[in-house]
């Protein structure tokens, strides 16, 4: 069988440092006890908010029909029964949602992980221009991540806060020594940090060939930058051949296809051991081959694509193991970043790790050259007493309305990490108020004072919705829970979940996420639907980094055009503020 030979012979070459390798002492984070449990929101509240969310995106007729279905759902007893089931589940588990969420949002999803779910992060371009620079940078980066690992292992990571409340830190336990494993119907996640023999190696991939690199000395101390550099040199020199099968590209396939190929692959003992070594490794470093040179203008988009999918089979897509939770990517031309498999963690713990590592490898090396809106950042909305997040989201709304003449369901990730094992819920951005604002911006009969008042109202509504979402009172996960409860109870699916409005409400043409960091970087991810946009943004004080994606196969979407329209919307909105209201300094 063709797949049997993919990894053989010697695609993974264990390279061990002389002497036995001591096992690092690893223990779990233990600050979770005080965290509250994720609540189940009141049923009536979710139903009312669901109808309100539909108002700006469905017709009056559809809304009327859905209103009746919602009334039946509330009065007929079905809603109450499902709600009680959810409340029972909430009493019995640490988090009624987390397992269902991991399963339904990630592990049951059969689309490829590359582009569809795995975000890529572009780091500022480094100054190195050759192989030595690439190796030295990769060595520093590895040492930096190992330093960060010490903080996780010793439980000394500072607790994070949102609105002055401590956040669940459990996701930090999931990002290292972790990997997704494909199945023919559903996937699983292997997470390895607390076993008796925690892994002490990373995997390095160069020219499509995978290497195991032990990164601890026999006394348990991590290798120094120089030691790692020497090992990387050896790896580089033993993988000069470029004619190897790009076995890693299998991991970019549709999950059912990859699941079948995987089962065949691991029938072979050597392959099984090799794959296991990748899965258990602390993380992966991809030393990429040079990509085609492009103009400075196109450089940022080219790097974003390299991080998201490797640039295709001819370039670096085979130089990855897309199932691996964390893969750092270092090219010869100063390109660097990472791609991460989303199932075990959200973006913020990943960027926190990046901030730490970038600081570790010295910030003055940086050449700031990333996707950015240069004119202003959080400062301007703050000076005008507006939430920066709400303001930027209104710019995304305005740009979309200008391009399409309508509003669409818009998803913003809101953190649920105030709750034990919390992940995210949806902050629905499109509201009655946002619709009125974007309509007024396009209506020549409206005065700027009226537009500003509508912007303030829309931003205020967004802020309230954000507050409710992070306090566990949004509607999406609750509706999902009620649906899954119906499946678990084997009752027939209530009609509100089969209604057109329900489909419209969940067809998120704009998928957004704020992933803020101190480092001047930007994360990117693909759209959620074929005719949608993926928008990840990092609002810095004086500028905003925004990465926008769309599928080439869709004629209606165009990432560059949407990005330009967002740029103009942000400029017009600042002009509106300056024209109408003096800034507070
Ligand atoms: N006037 C002046 N300043 C204001 C303001 C106003 N009306 N409203 C807010 N601000 C300030 C805030 O105090 C804050 O100040 P800081 O920069 O000193 O901290 C800053 O503006 C940012 O606040 P805001 O823009 O409102 O957003 P936020 O930081 O509260 O973030 C969410 C909102 C929804 C993004 C956040 O709650 C969240 O959930 N983040 C996680 C998302 C996530 O998990 N993404 C990854 C998914 S993979």
Q: Quick gist of this model?
A:
Helix content is 41%, strand content 14%. It has 585 residues and is an alpha/beta fold.
The portion of residues assigned to helices is: 40-55%
CATH superfamily of the largest domain: Choline/Carnitine o-acyltransferase, domain 2
- Characterize the biggest β-sheet: 8 strands, mixed
Shape: globular
CATH topology type of the largest domain: Chloramphenicol Acetyltransferase
Description of the structure:
- The structure is a single chain.
- The chain has 585 residues and is α/β, with parallel strands linked by helices.
- The chain folds into two domains: 109-365, Chloramphenicol Acetyltransferase; 379-584, Chloramphenicol Acetyltransferase, CATH 3.30.559.
- 41% of the residues lie in helices and 14% in strands.
- It is built from 17 helices and 19 strands.
- It has helices spanning 43-54, 60-75, 78-92, 98-107, 131-153, 225-237, 255-265, 269-280, 296-309, 347-360, 379-383, 388-404, 432-441, 448-470, 476-488, 500-506, 559-580; strands at 12-15, 120-122, 125-126, 161-162, 165-166, 178-181, 188-191, 201-206, 209-214, 284-287, 326-330, 336-340, 366-367, 410-415, 424-428, 510-514, 522-524, 533-539, 544-550.
- The strands form five sheets. It has an eight-stranded mixed β-sheet with strand order 1-9-8-10-11-12-2-17, with helices on both faces. A five-stranded mixed β-sheet has the order 15-14-16-18-19. The protein has a two-stranded antiparallel sheet with strand order 3-13.
- A hairpin with a 6-residue loop joins strand 6 and strand 7.
- Helix 5 crosses helix 10.
- The radius of gyration is 25 Å and the shape is globular.
- The N and C termini lie far apart (69 Å).
- The model is unreliable at 1-30 and 363-371 (pLDDT under 50).
- The protein binds coenzyme A (COA).
